[in-house]
Amino acid sequence: MVKEGFLFSAPPLVLGLVALAFRWNWTGGILIFLALFVLYFFRNPKRTIPSAPGLVVSPADGRIMEIVEEPLDGTVGRRISIFLAIWNVHVQRAPVSARVADVVYRPGRFYAAMRSAASRENEQNIIYLHAAGGRIVFKQIAGAIARRVICWKSEGQEVARGELMGLIRFGSRVDVWMPLEARVVVKRGDNVKGGESVLAEWNSTP
Question: Within 10 A of 7 (CB to CB), how many other CB atoms are there?
Fold first, then answer.
């Protein structure tokens, strides 16, 4: 469980217990159910991180929506988009071992995370990672419900593959951009687990 789970679940839990004390059973039950759902939403299950060299793991739990070639800062690469439903785990992990070169917050709209326009126009954190052999970029993208993207890392920090990086609240999208030489091993429609599922093989990564 990440700490945000306790912060957001405490108010409905306390109010629910108060309601039950006054015998407002329906109200109390709904509030306690809401508190339990919030705790479930902010869960942080243990993951087995692959140790083989040259792997790019998924930074998030969810379903692969798109795999497309796309330029980033003038360089053509491949973008993999992952949709996080509200019942998915919502912490994000580093796809490779690397140095955090930059974290750029970009305010924006709140289109539904399934829309392709969300990658360009929604509120997001853009996280630039410099691995041993090149650059990988991933985005924490807010959706129609999620309106808060949080990155726990900052410029200059070293991260290990599968290490916790941040959190998106309540339904969202994560994009991963990688060089064309990385061989993608997932396909559209696949379900992936953050830190555990392999997205691509890239011999330049440790």
Answer: 11
